[in-house]
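FAQ: What does the model actually see?

It sees only this:
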Amino acid sequence: MSVPTLNGPRWVTVRQHRRALWALPAAVAVSLAVVLALRWWASTPAGLRWNNPDGPLRVGMEYAGMAMLFLPLLLGAFVAGPMVARELESGTYRLALTQSSTPRAWLASKITVAAVAAVAGSAALAGVYRIGWAPLDGTHQFAWADRGPYESLGTVHVAYCLLGVAVGALVGQLVRRTLAAMAVTALVTGLVMVLLGALRWSFLPVRTLTTSSVETGVPMPRGDPLMMDYGLTTASGERLPEWTCFARSGSRRGCPDDLNVTGWYVDYHPATHYWPTQSIETAVVLVLAALALWAAFAVLRTRYR
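And it is asked to produce this:
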């Protein structure tokens, strides 16, 4: 993939990795063709008979969601291995430094090219994913808060891809072995994604819905909420697990008087929390990416003073 306006280290980087750079638009084109074909099939009489949990569109989009989650790991591994560690391991980086190029320019060119490709590729794939997700919106495993749709439809996916690039630039210099650097980068990026995924629904306080009677049943918030917790409330304000009455009386129709149960509670996140949560998580990930990027150039300065 050659861009005539590029010059210096960036042009060399693009030339070195043009096949990998061409792979991104190819992946977008193939993904779009597959998603459009699956949507067309789902709208045909034959496809409507497959309108079940094993339907081709649903299965295809489940795999697409997993692929989107792995994309930041793959991008980070590529930057860490082929782009940085392999040149340090083989010594070919010395050739770049003899061509009137500074170590800073050498690393910056790789990060710039990888970051541009990561942003453009992840944004395009997110658009393709949205096309396939739209008919499944709100169904099982395709709600706004589910793993896969949550990341792929918002800004956090681009942020995680940039994090992968930054971590790859740092780990590639520290490890200096192609395969080992790829593995460590994928592991670190994946751990950050898992950790923030476990914490994201604590960024904003939950909303609570209560009832004043047990007989009314569990209250259901309006819209498309993310249910976080539910159970029983007592006269003293204590919360009890929803199975407490059944465990004591063996019946779901009433609670023992000594429990003083007064009703139900439900903690939930409304759908309006989606973008605020996305914004907070995106900011956190970008800060981590900036720190990794600063560390990458700090390591570079230490080794090539």
